[in-house]
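Response to reviewer comment R2.3. The reviewers asked that we include at least one raw input/output pair. We reproduce the pair for Sepiapterin reductase here without editing.
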Amino acid sequence: MEAEPGAERRRWAAASCVLTGASRGFGRSLARLLAPRLGPGSLLLLLARSEEALAQLAAELRDSCPGLRVECVASDLGSEEGLRRAVGAVRELLPGGPPDRLLLINNAGNATTGIGPQVLVQKKREQQESVVTPEDFAPGAEGSLGDISKSFLSLTDPNEINTYFAFNITSALCLTSSALQAFGMRPGCSRTVVNISSLCALQPFRSWALYCSGKAARDMMFRVLAAEEPDVRVLNYAPGPLDTDMQLLARTRTGDAEMRQQFQSLHDSGQLIDCAVSAQKLLRLLEENTFTSGAHMDFYSV
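Raw output as returned:
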């Protein structure tokens, strides 16, 4: 892995870091850019569903970043067992990590799959198929986005709705509170919590009732954290329309035809953002540290 040019000059002091949704998409790009910045002795805990992809990323970071302790825990944050496993890892590892800085990035909840969108499309072409179907996506791929083929009036199954919010809201709340408790409060320490948000936290998208509701709830949840804990720096960061599997799902599965066409137009006009570009902007925001705690900041506004 090649570090971002100039990463060594901007190396941070030793920190304890937790990153969810780390194995693919935006989370994977963020991990690759964050790791070289972390000073010797830092701890980086990676959480994600996919054990194989997570292990590969951890091995890559260990090889490329000597002095960085990389731990990974495969857990489905949408299940009680997976959430308990993740919380257990946080409670076990953070007390023994560097005590001066905590960085928790809640990225889980952004829809990704086992392969990237360009690879998936190419695969379909090779098979002489033109339509992307739900079966092309890894299990759980739509769990982050919800069933976007459904309108508001079609969402009548409480199990479906509760499962969605358990993954996207309950897990983020439990993991964040557990991490802050485990790290503790020490004189002079720095604690920063990032919620990967979305324009959908602010603006309604037809057919996206679950996703918009989940993102809006998470934004408010972390604003409450900022209000209650003034010593914790809190940022809701919307990374923009990323060139990930979520956008591929959006333009093929969204029930509302007009919305589906808008997503297709974003792709066709080349307006989708590379994950690494948005991740670099987030890290600059954290380095500058001038944002108002609890604020919602968008890729295009900074």
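Confidence is low (pLDDT under 50) at residues 1-9, 111-127, 129-141. The chain has nine helices and seven strands. Further pairs are available on request from the corresponding author.
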